[in-house]
Amino acid sequence: MALKDKLSHDGLIELDSALDTAGHQWREQVLETATDRFECRVAQEMSAVRIEIAESRLSTIRWVAGLLIAHAGVVIGTVFAMMTFLVNALK
Q1: Are 24 and 32 in contact (CB under 8 A)?
Q2: Using the 8-state DSSP alphabet, how is residue 1 labeled?
């Protein structure tokens, strides 16, 4: 009641309006800060995921290359063995 007596009705309305305006501005600033932090965190996490995917791809490529080389060795070895067997059989 003391504030109402000192400010009058119009003063209370202006104070309420000023407090509402300050509250809205504060909420907007808080949301903006939270959004910026969230976007930064999402960017960091996406970067980590991209690195992990790249490492996984590189590992897969290495395995496939190794298997292809091993397969080529088996095929060449088999052909060589067949040629040796054929040459020995024809003697």
Answers
A1: no
A2: -
pTM for the model: 0.54
In a domain, 27, yes or no: yes
d(CA 78, CA 72): 10
| pLDDT tens-place string over residues 5-23 | 777 777 888 888 889 999 9
How many angstroms separate the CA atoms of 22 and 84, rounded?
92
- Does 29 map to a domain? yes
Mean pLDDT over each residue of the chain, to the nearest integer = 91
Residue 76 falls inside a structural domain? no
CA distance linking residue 22 with residue 35, whole number of Å: 20
Q: Is residue 30 part of a domain?
A: yes
